[in-house]
Design goal:
Radius of gyration: 22 Å
Largest sheet: 5 strands, mixed
Number of strands: 5
Distance between the termini: 53 Å
Strand content: 15-25%
Order of helices and strands: HHHEHEEHEE
Structural class: alpha+beta
Strand order of the largest sheet: 1-2-3-5-4
Helix content: 40-55%
């Protein structure tokens, strides 16, 4: 093979390598968007399911509560639709035709500043979320802010869907080298009486919630744990370096 043939082979190899790199970037971006879709939609559908069940139980006896539940369903549905439109638009922009596609924006991205709004929305589904902040609050890298918020969102979604608890506690602790998150519920709240009606496991979703949280934390070189509490209820903890 002459020198010209060697150059041609090398050029073809570099072009193939560039195509593979671009394809990997596109795939990573699509997976990122899919993860955001799952976390956001799972939370919203959980809220809508609880509100619709509540409305069905009191429609004939408590019209004001029925109206509040339907208003909550309308608001949550509208917000979810807008977020889906943004995400699907970002997904369409992450096309393999681009030589080196840029990360498709999912604006507005979730952050820890959105936790109070999350708590307010969840209260409408019958679960009061008590949020505490520890340490000196400061802006964190966007990927840390988003992952921390999604972990809290998914954990609260699981409380709404599965625990039967009427309250849960969210603690966000700012540390010099990171942020620590804890979400705890007491099951039936430890009051000896019945908690909220809970849904069967089959109604809960895909089962990717805890796996998704663990994956987020692992990708960011953090620490994650989740499990039943000896005294009842469930606890999720995560620490993200920042």
């Amino acid at each position: 093979m002459g020198l010209r043939g060697v150059y041609r082979k090398r050029r073809e190899y570099l072009e193939a390598l560039q195509e593979q790199t671009a394809a990997r970037v596109v795939m990573a971006e699509r997976l990122r968007i899919a993860r955001e879709l799952h976390d956001s939609v799972a939370h919203s559908i959980g809220i809508i399911t609880v509100l619709s069940g509540a409305a069905a139980r009191v429609v004939a006896t408590k019209p004001e509560q029925t109206r509040q539940a339907l208003t909550g369903i309308e608001t949550t549905s509208r917000e979810t639709l807008l977020e889906l439109q943004r995400m699907l638009g970002a997904l369409r922009r992450a096309e393999p035709d681009d030589a080196m596609p840029q990360a498709a924006p999912l604006a507005p991205a979730g952050s820890l500043a959105d936790v109070p709004q999350l708590a307010e929305r969840t209260a409408g589904a019958g679960v009061r979320v008590h949020v505490t902040w520890r340490g000196e609050r400061r802006p964190l890298p966007p990927e840390i802010e988003l992952s921390a918020f999604r972990i809290i969102q998914e954990s609260v979604t699981n409380v709404v869907r599965h625990s039967g608890a009427r309250t849960c506690r969210v603690a966000v602790g700012y540390e010099p080298t990171g942020v620590r998150i804890e979400v705890v519920d007491d099951g039936d709240d430890g009051l000896g009486g019945p908690g909220r009606p809970r849904f069967a496991a089959g109604a809960g979703g895909s089962g990717f919630g805890l796996l998704g949280m663990r994956e987020r934390v692992t990708l960011l070189s953090g620490q994650f744990s989740a499990g039943q509490r000896p005294e009842g209820g469930f606890r999720v903890t995560a620490r993200l370096p920042a």
